[in-house]
Amino acid sequence: MEIPIIGSIDSLLMAAAMAVVGCPRAWRTQVILWFIAFDFAATFTGWSFSVAHGPAVLLVLALACPVLYAARKRPSLYFLLPVICSADNLLLGSGDGPWQFWSAVVAAASTGILAFVGFSLGGLAARRIQGGTR
User: Fold this and answer.
1) What's residue 1's pLDDT?
2) Residue 90: its pLDDT value, please?
3) How many CB atoms sit inside 10 A of residue 89's CB?
């Protein structure tokens, strides 16, 4: 069983982008929990479609970017981004057999950790950007 860091890298990047563009700080914990829940569900129920990890992540990020842009005006759309970002895990799946549940748990844990790190790094970047423009 490999650590699905590639399948969770989209959560890191999207959380960082969300922090930079203005996801309310009060919502970040909820959004991280949504990342965890949807990545777990997608990995557990997903099928392996023989899609490479990289293109699946790039496809998800391409689909999420317009929603991220729209979320600046309609902040409730931030909650849609974890759903979109779980699509790569749905395509990749975790294989069949008794390890499928544990693979989904590991994917959810790595997604949660990387989303937290993404929000932290994105928050630092946002503060630097705001401080540098004054």
Assistant:
1) 44
2) 83
3) 30
- Cα dihedral value 34, 22, 20, 133, nearest 10: -170
Sequence-distant (6+) residues with CB within 8 A of 91 are 46, 47, 49, 51, 56
Q: Considering only CA atoms, which of 99, 114, 90, 112 is closest in space to residue 37?
A: 112
Are the beta carbons of 93 and 43 closer than 8 angstroms? yes
Burial of 38 (0-12, 13-18, 19+ CB in 10 A): buried
Q: How many structural domains are present in the chain?
A: 1
Range of the domain at 70: 5-132
Its pTM stands at 0.87
